[in-house]
Amino acid sequence: MTTSLSQRLQAELTGLKDSGLLIHPRVLDQANRARTSVDGQQVVNLASNNYLGFADHPALKEKAEAYLRQWGAGAGAVRTIAGTLRIHEDFEEQLAQFKHTGSALVLQSGFTTNQGVLGTLLKDGDLVVSDELNHASIIDGLRLAKATKKVFKHADMQDLERVLQENDTDGLKLVVTDGVFSMDGDIAHLDRIVTIARRYGAVTYVDDAHGSGVLGEAGRGTVHHFGFDHADDVIQVGTLSKAWGVVGGYAAGHHDLRQLLINRARPYLFSTAQPPAVVGALSAALELVQSDPSFMERLWDNTRFFKAELHTLGFDIMGSQTPITPVLFGETETAFEASRQLFREGIFAVGLGFPTVPRGQARIRNIVTAEHTREDLEKALAAYGKVGKALGTI
Predict the structure, then answer these.
(1) What is the pLDDT of residue 23?
(2) Which residues are identified as catalytic?
(3) Whole domain around residue 341: which residue ranges?
(4) Dihedral of CA 53/317/25/16: which sign?
């Protein structure tokens, strides 16, 4: 007998509920800032990717409003028909200059950027070698590619070299890695990855969603952090949300990369261009981070303080090297209960369990921002101390 839509929906939702994986997102009642209101409660916000505090920054809102008034509410078409406004190309030139690359192209999101770039570049007979902890958007992008796909153990350079040795090809070879890994907060060994990739004639592809605005001079990212920003055999992709506070994705690299993506990347070809207000806000974000180094300075001062104090309390922060600071609780229900108790203490920090992270490694992922005050972080640390003792974690 045919399954009805209602039966399918109920079965899937019941399965999620029984597994403890059914999500009910909390709702913010105010702008996404270091202190905000969530479900009617004032909280210190440790759940946002708003690294530099740009999501509600006056400079971004001012330029967004100016672009909105001059250029309208929407672009009106896909880029290849009638949706490319002068401001789109101006921003892409600004982004390429910022990233020190031959070209840059903006797409609708970081997720669709991986689908578009990987789907465009990789063909039958090519080889792609991917870190096992790469983001879901990379995994989905690779599903669209006809290339031979291999995985190397997370951050294991010997295993990367083994895979490249055992899988030669006359086609394009691509080594794919996150710049900063979103669950653990560790930084890819890009200095070694690029060296090994070059040894086997491979191109390095870096998803720098959590590295842009965080690492490198003026937030240029992980590639700049390791000194490869002028390299034509390194492709940078990422998001324009997170540190940049808005929305969108980008691909930056070889001067011909942009033109190929314009002609072949399906998310670019079949999606309406970004609204003018978004372009204005993004342009302001790049200007601001380059003119005022205090944003990154505060981000890293806060990060160092928060990590050191969590360590003193006795928490395992899983070797994080960046503002992404996981606190290990082990079992999924323990992490979720810790999140609930923290919320009652006025701290908004979300628990993550299987299948988002491996079994036995459930954690709360905290993200420290430039906007947090020392008072905010001390309040969070006091709450963590209370909750950690109550649950027997410390």
Answers:
(1) 85
(2) 182, 210, 242
(3) 22-56+293-390
(4) positive
CATH of the domain at 280: 3.40.640.10
Interatomic CA distance for residues 264 and 107, integer angstroms = 13
- Cβ-in-10-Å burial (0-12, 13-18, 19+) of 162 comes to middle
DSSP 180: B
Cβ contacts of residue 219 below 8 Å, gap of 6+?
52, 212, 213, 243, 289, 296
Asked, for residue 1, whether it belongs to a domain, the answer is no
Judge contact between 153 and 129, C-beta under 8 A: no
Give the helix ranges, DSSP H, for 122-221: 136-143, 157-166, 190-199
pLDDT average per 10 residues of sequence, the chain (394 residues): 96 92 91 97 97 98 98 98 98 98 97 96 97 95 94 98 96 98 95 98 98 97 96 97 98 98 97 98 98 98 98 96 97 94 98 88 97 98 98 96
pTM, two decimals, is: 0.96
Last-in-domain residue among 291, 309, 333? 291
